[in-house]
Structure formats: C-alpha cells, structure tokens
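User: Please write out a complete single-protein record containing the residue sequence and its fold in token form, without commentary.

AI:
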Amino acid sequence: MDPVDGCKLMFQAEKVIVELNKTFPADGLLPIYISPDRGTPSYSTITFGAMGDSFYEYLLKVWIQGNKTSAVKPYRDMWETSMKGLLSLVRKSTPSSFTYVCEKNGDSLIDKMDELACFAPGMIALGSSGYGPGDSEKFLSLAEELAWTCYNFYQSTPTKLAGENYFFRDGQDMSVGTSWNILRPETVESLFYLWRLTGNKTYKEWGWNIFQAFEKNSRIESGYVGLKDVNTGDKDNMMQSFFLAETLKYLYLLFSPTTVISLDEWVFNTEAHPLKIVTQHDGEISGRSDGQHRPNIRLRGRKGGRFIDDIRIH
C-alpha cells in the first residue's frame, strides 16, 4: 500500500475513535453492536469475549505503539475507563474462587466467560505498569488471577484442552458450555505476557502443559486439528490459520529469550503481528483529540529499493 493511502486510512479509523470518545459511557463498556449511522450503542451484549475483545485491546496498544505520548493519551484514558467497567464484571466462583469476567446484557449479568476473553490477563498485565504503584499492583494481581482461571479451563477437561466457553454456577465452579476447541491462542498469549512481565516460570510450565495437550490430542500426520468435543477428544478436520500465526508463535516466544521481539521495542496487534513502537517523543507527533487537526507524521516507505522520506499528511 502506498504510504500516503495508508495514512489516510489511519486517520479515517481514528475518526471513529474520536466520535466514540464523545459519547463514551462512564463505565467504558460498549455493546458489541453500535449504529454505524449515529454512532450510538444498541441494546446488545457487552463482553470481553467474542466480538467485543479487540476494541479494548487496541485502546491500550495504540497508546503503547504511539510511545505513550500526549498525542495518544486519549486512548489510554479510554482504556482506563474501560478497566473500571471490567472490574464491575469481575466475580469469583464457589467453592474454588476462580476469578472470571461476566458478560452483561442490559442490567443482567451472565456468569459466562469465553476462552477468547483469556486475552484479558495479558492485556491487563501489559497495561498495569501505566498506573501508579497501588493500582499497578491491583491490576497485575487481577491479571494473574484471571490467568489461573484460563489455565484451569484447560486443566478441567479430560483432554486438558479448553472448551470455547465456560459457565460458572454457585457451588460448581466452572463447567464447559460450547465444548469444541479450535486451537485458539488467547490463554497462551496471556501466559507469554505474564512470563515476560513477571519472570515467573510457572507461566512457562502452564504453557508447556497446554502444548503437550495439543501434541497429544490435536497432532496428526499433516499438522494439527481442533476437537469437536474436549470431553471425548473427537477430532475435527481443520487447522485454523491462527494456530500457526498466533498459538504456536506465542508458545515459541514463551520459551525464547526475552530479547526476541522485546516488549520494549514492539507491540503485538490482535493477530499477533509485531509492530514497531514509534520513536517520536512529545512534540514530534502533534494532534488534538477533538479531531480538528491531523497529526504530522514522518513516514519512511520503500519504493524501487530506495527510501522515501519526509512524506507528510496534513
């Protein structure tokens, strides 16, 4: 893509965030459906699982990729507001006190958590350092508690592979809802972040156990396949593309030196593609959160084997 066209698309995408920020709810929680004409939320599910997850992740990661400057601070502010909302959805199971994140529909809470929502421990851990000492410790502790729950999504089944979602009922802890496993990456993604950020080798052990379960239940001669049912171990006949692009990538990085794609230099998008953190500092990227002025951004693009410098969008 031409660098100029790429920047134009970026600014169009940013306009959406600017509009959402104008009517952003006090708890920072948005339903999975929003009117494309009015930009107003519809009456639909609020979840950190399927269809809701990436919005919250990108609020944090745009702030990180933007080098945490004032130009991208509105993203961090929106993310912190959303984390307050997430705290309102956190519950503990009985009798084992597994921490989980509910879904919400209207005023009703649903004691259900998708495996997809298991990206959240990694996201929360990654964002925890942006708080002051007290809140930083609180959110890192929450990330570790949620990671324990997600790991037990795997450990609670005969195959040691997680189902697609889980329900929590009083006195019963967790039980599998939708029982297939399609080789999703979210839990090992969070284990990677927690290992990198805490140095606790427990997360490597958990990751190894999950990898061994994939090897035992999903490995076939031509690759890996999902399971129709994590209770019976019946296989399906498909290897999802994200198994190679994300699941195995995060497992590889979990056992790699921390200098391999260092989190000081790179940020991963929601599909596990590493993006370089920009080197600009405050004053080099300028913009207003009201969207009236576009930031001036220096780009370096390749064309015909030569660098093109000083492309500026106004």
In short: Helices lie at 3-22, 53-65, 73-89, 120-128, 133-155, 186-198, 202-217, 241-254.
